[in-house]
Amino acid sequence: MRVSAQAQPNIALVKYWGKRDGGGNLPATGSLSVTLESLWTRMILQSSKHRKDSLTVNGVSAPEMLPRVSRCLDSVLGSNRERIHVVSDSNFPIEAGLASSASAFSALVIAANRLTGKNLSFSALSRFAGEASGSAARSMCGGFVELVADSDNVHIQQIADAEEWPLEVIVAITAEGKKPVGSGEAMIRSAKTSPFYSSWLNRQDHDLKLARTSILTRDFEALAFVSERNCLKMHSVMWSSRPPIVYWNSGTLDCLQTVRSLQAKGHGVFFTIDAGPQVKAICLPESRQAVHDALVATNGVIKAIRSKIGPPARLIL
Ligand code: 2P0
Fold first, then answer.
1. Separation of 163 CA from ligand 1 center, angstroms?
2. Is 0.85 topped by the overall pTM?
3. Distance, CA 267 to ligand 1 centroid (Å)?
4. Whose CA is nearest to atom 7 of ligand 1?
5. Of 137, 183, 208, 259, which residue is most buried, by most CB within 10 angstroms?
């Protein structure tokens, strides 16, 4: 039996940066993202006669990533399951701040559910994806997606789909290597050491409300304002952690200046940056070419990837 699924990474406009106390991998607050179209992870799951699961990532055996994948398979299928060979391929750099764990684990739960005919609900699968990687739950949906954090659980809801507000995203890659510290470890460090951490958490509901309203009213200026502010607040929490967590490089800063000069020329564009040095510029369709060309010409940019807003995690042939 062989099953394939594909999912796209998402980029957060209101960020997840902090886990809930009490173990597990529940986020401390809600978050809000857009799912990308042109970046993808494809997962092939195949029943195996071996005694252990196995994992190949982009053509190379990846035993160091296997425990997390096996745990996710256990959560979907139960621990008394057959062993599975997992093949994961992505068309973008992984572990580099481009949310590869979001596309990987959302595709994994969709494929695992099909492999054994479990037919679990969307909310159960989203929960399992989110337990494996907090941001993965958001890639279960396409378009503009909110992860709503209730007092005892989280759930996913789509705010608008890609057709309802067809914004575009240019991803400026400024380094392709693995990030210096993983997101999970970095979040825990921020919670323990940043003097700004509690005020960061306390203002998240406010930013979520602003972002949600700006999407529902298609207010690009308002979405730009809250997204840039939320991104800079998250990085302020990271920078004020001990030791500091600095994912940016000089290309990151140059990209921010490029976005500011595009804004000064009247283009509808704003930036966001995640746990890595890449800059994501979200723009109106009519500014796509100008934003792409300006970012490609920016010092430190290795390449710029264009994307529309994408679809949900799904089975593929
Ligand atoms: C986000 N990030 O909202 C934020 C912004 C990075 C910066 O979610 O520990 O790989 O697996 O739950 O989902 C990246 O963290 O973290 C992330 P875990 P994940 O997209």
1. 26
2. yes
3. 29
4. 274
5. 137
